[in-house]
Amino acid sequence: MICKNCKKVNSDDARFCIHCGSDLSNSNVAVEEGSVDKYFAEKKSAFIEEAKSLADSEMKQGIIWFVIALVITFGSYLFTSEGGTYYVFWGAMIYGIYRLIRGFWYKLNPESLLQKAEKEAKKDK
Ligand SMILES: [Zn+2]
């Protein structure tokens, strides 16, 4: 729902606007005439914000995986410095890079997530 006072989007069961604190009980909430497009535009921008933060956490996860793989690889290298075999954790590194790139892609194209969601929704019907 949209707050009539500040025109920002709130969850449908909210009693008060999280942006300006207005009471959202019935009379104050209405999708005004001609505001349906605006309502969906705001929903969309909220979704895109969400997609961006998802992308950020995806990138963070990727970096964490990569760094951990690097640290373990380095650790195993140190332990086997006498010419033994050591392990390079390619799988985890590649997985980390993959998630980093995917996160980066989503950050650049948050709309692609929206389109993906739309496609999924159509498939369900
Ligand atoms: Zn408000």
From TrEMBL:
Sequence intervals crossing the membrane: 62-79, 85-101
Superkingdom of this protein's organism: Bacteria
Keyword terms of this UniProt record: Membrane, Transmembrane, Transmembrane helix
UniProt xrefs under InterPro entries: Zinc_ribbon_dom
Positions of the Zinc-ribbon domain: 3-24
Pfam family, one: Zn_Ribbon_1
Name of the protein described by the UniProt record: Zinc-ribbon domain-containing protein
